[in-house]
Amino acid sequence: MKKTCLLLLLAVAFSEQLIAQELLTLENAISTALEKNFAIKIARSREAIAQNDNTRGNAGMLPVVNGTTQANFNTNSVNQEFFPVGTATRPPLIQSGVHNRNSNSGVNLVWTVFDGMGMFATAERLREIVQLGKTNVEINIENTAAQVASAYYDIIRQKQRLDNLKNAQEISNTRLELAKANYEVGTTSKSEYLAAQVDFNADQAAVVAQEQLLKNAKVNLNTLMLRDFGADFSVPDTIVFRTDMQLAALQERLMSQNPNLVAANQNRRITAIAEREARATRLPQVDLLGGYQYNTINNEAGFGIKSSRTGSLNYGARLTMPIFDGFNQRRREQNAKINTYIAEYQEGELKNQLLSFLERTYITYQNSIQLFGFEEKNLKIARQNVDLAFERYRVGNSTAIEFREAQRNAVATESRLIEAAFNVKITEIELLRLSSSIVEEVK
To answer: Phi and psi of 76, rounded to 5°?
Structure first.
């Protein structure tokens, strides 16, 4: 009765532990990571800067108006003696603490109305930079989603490995109990009993090491999600993967939607616009000028004007024609054209690398699917072999060495099956990332 109650209490405690553990889905993991990821926040901040810079004023299309004001204060001492004029003599002028005040205020306007169409090229470049900022955000989102998905399925893989090793440990424990019982009744030797203990201890050590790998995998995912590293959670027991992905469709999506390739194309367009900006400075520039000045003068002593108030309005136009600048104009145009070539080369190189990587990843994907099919069949055979070997060992028709070898083969086969399933899923995730389908299709 006491034993039954103890088992019930243990079952209740175990069930409460499972309930307390969070069941983390891949969708929740990705959404949490996308919300908190620092790289995405940085990319969004840079996009916001690009949006702020995308104005007509920054492109040079609007006038520039400056207002200035200046006030000057002087304190003077005067000691002046005058020449006589005829028989008239003027007495000396002696003063101290004489204050003179004058001020100057004005508003000036400069409006460039023509600069060789350079301002329109600049405005277009600023718009392209905004689009590039959005593309960079998308790149970080897709990379983060792929990293989270890979880390998530790595946890499932480590969990499956742990279950596999625990099953092997249970078999070793059964063998140990059987060897102990046989030794106690004298049907087997002590060396066989000790060998069963060694194998059981080895399986225990393997379980402990695998538990550590599982914990590390969870820490890795928690790190990507930017939450408590030690937060525990549960995941599904199996890895479900697709087998219907087609290379032609993936290539088409990569060429049209891959954000890295889109960003390379945007960079090429930006350099082409910069080339137009460089050529624009070869043409004349026309500016409209205007201003208003207001001056005041207040003198307490001296000759001439005692006080004055003047205001003046000025306006006009200015034409600036570049004639010779030491061949720097030609140098700037040549460098801008070279930068355009570089951007084209970079786009072509990236396209070639992405297509090559897609091809190799797809080959790995297909081979992993085939290996999974092979190992799935092998595992059925290996498990049957373990059952037969254990039954023969139990009745004394097989040695412990033969049974242990069958057990090892089963563990190794299941490990290969787990790795094959994981490899299929990882290559599937990479194919989805390359084809810019990772966020909406990853499962």
So the answer is: -120, 155
